[in-house]
C-alpha cells in the first residue's frame, strides 16, 4: 500500500523523527522514499532590494541539500532506496504538488504542535498538506511543542 512514500523535511529534529517513521513504513512495505525540502524563497520577496537575496537563497538551498542528505543516509542505513529533492516555493503548496508529480502513495510530515495565535499567524505546513493532499498524510507529532 505504501510503496512510494514522500518524507517532508525542514531540517529540524521534528522532521527527523517523522523521517524515521516514513523510512520504517517504507522498509516494512518494501518501498522507497522521496525526501523533499522546500526552500521558502517566497518570503525573500519582502526583503529590501539591497540585501544579498541571492546569498540568502543559496543558503536556503544548501540547508535543503544538507537536510535531505541526512535523511537519505538514515534511509540507506535502513536499506531503503531514496530520492532527494530540493524545491522552491510555498512549502504547503509545493509538498502537495511534488507528491502528485512524483506519484507517491503517502506523505509523512512532522507536526511540532504550534497552537493559538502562533498557528493563526504563521499557519501550519502540515495542516495545509493534510487539507489539500489527495493521498494519505501521516503526521508525526514532535516530542514537545516547537521552540
From TrEMBL:
Q: Which CDD domains match?
A: USP-like
In this chain the UspA domain maps to 1-141
Superkingdom, taxonomy of origin: Archaea
Coiled-coil regions listed: none
Q: Write down a Pfam family by its short name.
A: Usp
* InterPro entries per record: Rossmann-like_a/b/a_fold (IPR014729), Universal_stress_UspA (IPR006015), UspA (IPR006016)
Report TM segments. Answer: none
By sequence similarity, the record places it as follows:
Belongs to the universal stress protein A family.
Q: In its UniProt entry, what is this protein called?
A: Universal stress protein
Q: Which organism is it from?
A: Methanothrix harundinacea (strain 6Ac)
